[in-house]
Amino acid sequence: MAKRPTYLQFANDETPPPLSTAILAFQHSAIVLINLVYVVIITKGLNLSAADQFAMLSTTLLACGAGTLLQARFGSKLLIVFHPNPIYIPLAIAAGLTQGPGGIAVLMLSAGIVQFIFGSVVRRLRVFFPPEVCGVVVIMLGVSLLPGTLRGIVTQSADKTLLQVEPAGLAVALATLAVASAGSVWLKGMARFFSLLLGCVAGMIVAYALGIWQFGESKTALDVPAFALPSIHLPGFSFNIGLVYLAVVAALVNVVDELGVLIGTERLDDADWRRPDFRKMSLGLQASGLFTAISGVLGGTAMGMSSANLSLAYATGVTSRVVAMAAGAILIGVTFMPLVLKHVLSLPDAVVAGILFYAACYFIVSGAELALSRMLSPRRALVIGLSVGAGVLLQSAPALTTHFAGTSVEHVLAPMTFATIVAIVLNMLMRIGIRQTETMTFARPDAGEDADEIFNTLGERWGMHRQTGARAAAAMSEMRDLLATVATGPVACTVTYNELVLTMRFAYEGQPIALPSAAPTMDDLADKPDGVAQMAGWIVRRMSDYSSVDQVGGRQRVQLAFEC
User: Fold this and answer.
1) What are the residues facing 550 on neighbouring strands?
2) C-alpha–C-alpha distance, residues 15 and 23, integer Å
3) Angstrom distance (rounded) from CA 25 to CA 32
4) 551 has which bridge partners?
5) Per-residue pLDDT for 158 more than 70?
6) pLDDT-derived band of residue 6, with 50, 70 and 90 as boundaries?
7) Angle between helix 18-34 and 321-334 (nearest 10)
8) Would you tell me the crossing angle of helices 89-99 and 37-46 to the nearest 10 degrees?
């Protein structure tokens, strides 16, 4: 049974009162509507017609709403709210510029299928996507978004040889960026989730004051009613094998990213959470892949899972999946209100540029934090440095890829994709000889070097994640105290580490120990001679992810494993 956290007001399988459900669902939906700016970035980057821009926005939102509702009802049944996925922004623009809307459809369909397939085997993908590889992808996502931040700020001269800065556009972009950044720093609680919206409002006010935008005047030239059926333009298919390459890389990275959101959401419901329920993880990832494919076929863009909605669930103490179903219904309802979506498309280009720069910088910093989340070793330094360097080189010198223009290789050489491929290949090469082993013997189990000192030394030498080292040190200390009561001689300990799993094996002569799956009762502690030993064994088992006890060659052996 899961242990209910103290902050939780309504758990996943509970239903809040109707009014509370409506308010919570509106807040989750508002975050998705704010993130529609990512779709706007794609439509403006492709210079689509007003009708096609509107259709892409409407279709993507419809897929997000339907996916959210059905995922909460039939999928992982967690409070997951789908939103437009920023990871695919540069890829969608590249596909659209070379192959048109049909190219975007092929990209999204392929990505959705890949994610659906690999969602069921996500546990086995960890070896390909350690934190440093995922960090490189997120860093390069930010770098790839930077050229788009010039839209609405910089124009070309008549002969297209010089770039000219538009002072009014620059002022609007800076105002948007400043307010969005200030809101994310100084606003507290749930108000922080609306920093992006506040930045957009501030940018529009400045644009109005400078006379480059009029309130209520849409740039789309579309005359739409207040209520109507969702606008869907079927794009057809424009197949290119290079788009499939892009889709595979992006989908695999997205699987790892969304896995983090799913695990974080699951953890909210259990104070004693130890490991993910991979059945729920698979269902959630497959739902995301399925509706990304559906969205692409209907003319929309990819969807993803937002950590902002996860933070909102934590802040409100409500993880009820009923809230997700209500949020999905609200998003579907908004697609029947074309007037709302029309004004989303009317954002000035300079406002979009400010938001894009804000998002790009956030991705760069987040990627660096992820890439450096484990102690840096020479292997990891090379994976990160060479991959980012290769991607930035292609970004700053696009002439290097002109020879491959119009071919499938052109997509592979996109900065973000190329950096990801380099990172994956280097990571696999660097894994050669990565298995590390240290053997030590304690003359007395409860004497000798302190466990914290042991794992501090090993952690620095092997580049171990600090949290993994701390968990293993605590388990070793508890284990040595337990063995002091049963071992009749020295205790041999072998520590093995391969970046995915850390294993400790204790071998000794003496009485066997038990690692019970349940804590002993108060009566057991008071009446049974081994009651205290059972409690210690239960604690050791809880500290590790996997444990076993057996006998080999007349010696007792205890094995503890920790997932990294």
Assistant:
1) 557
2) 13
3) 11
4) 556
5) no
6) confident
7) 60
8) 30
Q: CA-CA distance, 532 to 526, in Å (whole number)?
A: 9
Give me 30's structure tokens. 């508002």
Structural element, H or E, at residue 390? helix 378-396
Strand 154-156 and strand 163-165: pairing? antiparallel
Q: How far is CA 55 from the centre of its chain?
A: 27
Most distant CA pair in the chain: distance in Å? 93
Give tens-digit pLDDT for 86-110: 888 888 988 898 888 899 999 999 9
pLDDT at 205: 92
Strand 501-508 with 303-305, pairing: unpaired
- The pTM assigned to this predicted structure is 0.67
Q: Report the pLDDT value the prediction gives residue 498, as an integer from 0 to 100.
A: 84
d(CA 59, CA 293): 12
Q: What pLDDT is recorded for position 138?
A: 77
Which 3 state secondary structure label does DSSP give 303? strand
Q: How many CB atoms lie within 10 A of CB 422?
A: 20
Name, of 142-146, 274-278, 299-303, 515-519, the range with top average pLDDT: 299-303
> pLDDT tens digit string along 509-551?
998 888 888 888 887 777 787 777 888 888 888 888 889 999 8
The CA-atom distances, in angstroms, between 241 and each of 84, 95, 144, 248, 407 are: 24, 11, 22, 11, 9
The reported pLDDT for the residue numbered 162 is: 63
CB 99 within 8 A of CB 243: yes
Q: Which among 137, 564, 141 is positioned nearest to 383, based on CA atoms?
A: 137
| Exposure b/e, 51-90, CB count within 10 A at least 16 = b | ebbbbbbbbbbbbbbbbbbebbeebbbbbbbbbbbbbbbb
For residue 98, which amino acid is it?
A: T
Q: What are phi and psi of 153, to 5 degrees?
A: -115, -40
